[in-house]
Amino acid sequence: MDLSTQSILKRSAALCGALAVSTAAAAANWPQWRGPEFNGSTSEKGLPSQFSKTENVVWTAVLPGPSASTPVVWGDTLFVTTADKNARELRAMALDRKTGKERWSKKVIDGYSRDERSNFASPSPATDGERVVFFFGNGEMVCFGLQGEEYWRRNLQADYGDFAFQWTFSSSPVISGGKIYQQVLQRNQPVHGKGKPGAESFLLALDPQTGKTLWRHVRPSEAVAESLESFSTPMPWTYQGRKELLITGGDCVSGHDPETGKELWRWGTWNPTKIGHWRLVPSPIAGAGVILACAPKGSPIYAVKAGAHGAVPDSGLAWTSAEQRTLSSDVPTPAFYGGDFIILGDQRRSLSRVEPATGKIKWTLETPGRSKYEASPLAADGKIYIMNFASEVTVVDAEKGSILATVPMGDPGENESRASIIAAHGKLFIRTLQKIYCVGQP
Prior knowledge:
Layout: H1 3-26, E1 57-62, E2 72-74, E3 77-84, E4 89-96, E5 102-110, E6 126-127, E7 131-135, E8 140-145, E9 150-155, H2 156-160, E10 174-176, E11 179-184, E12 202-206, E13 213-218, E14 235-239, E15 242-249, E16 252-256, E17 263-267, E18 285-287, E19 290-294, E20 301-305, E21 310-311, E22 317-320, E23 335-337, E24 340-345, E25 350-354, E26 361-366, E27 378-380, E28 383-387, E29 392-397, E30 403-408, E31 422-424, E32 427-431, E33 435-439
Parallel strand pairs: 17-21
Antiparallel strand pairs: 1-33, 2-3, 3-4, 4-5, 6-7, 7-8, 8-9, 10-11, 11-12, 12-13, 14-15, 15-16, 16-17, 18-19, 19-20, 20-22, 23-24, 24-25, 25-26, 27-28, 28-29, 29-30, 31-32, 32-33
């Protein structure tokens, strides 16, 4: 072998090694509802902008019923919460990430829904790579091993009293720092025969190995009636070395010590006149030293400066969107990507990229289609992915704010798809009302 051939082989080997490292680095898990960074973004690369129900589809899995639950992925397994509409039962499922074939499906409990707008399977599961936790809107929480072996279960309504919500409760569990976190922010009076006078809103920390309560922190609020209710999920966040759990609901946003639940700071209110029907849906989102809280029903977004202590005055706000009416979100949780916030306005029919320090809009566009958008945006690989009730997926160039594609992924007559699109291991996973599509290069 001559020297030139040896040189070519060495360069080829180095290139292959670099590609292997690059591919491994891009192949990230999506362990809980808002992803590996708790902000709706991921470092995944090579995600498609062109696809359909047949083009660039690796596999399709049919589910036993509808649900707003977003899938999660760890390694070669995709986990998803679902409701079986015909059997009227709630199920936990695991699919092979590469093929979509069912690995296991477990009936968790009988039950389906308490109202016509949603069912008990709306919360998304969470995994730490050793176990996966499923929570349902009727209070049932169950933990499985990755192979489907049941480790423990409990019912939070049985432990702490009936939930007091106007609609079916939905808040996803989060696993972080060796703890499971679950919040229940509810009204303090019975509603529709559920709940009890003086019911408390609280944040719960559980031991992932046993399910036992590590601590329970009561989170009081001066909100009234339905404005006490929150369907958001607690978000872990670290700023200048201080770890926090961010919580929105009860007309305010607060930060809590993950080890004890103790409240570190609080800002509020976006509801000074105490309107009684302002339930909250979007979860908090943080980035670049700013924490966003999206007030409900077309109200502004409030940006709180990170690092606060105690009661935060209005001077602790970096900005509000009160004068920029396109910036508002009643249901979707924003994403943080490329140093900016990505805000999907379901009532304003807009998608915007926003500078964290000032609230300046870098670009904004009108969301296409007739259907409402309630699923939260995915930001990855230079693109933003959003999906509306009709399961129409729109792909947006994250830098330019231009639409790259709009793809109908739903079946005829499909409506009220609410699951967020996720990305893991170089693929998109799109849950419509009845199916999951794995999309990407085969």
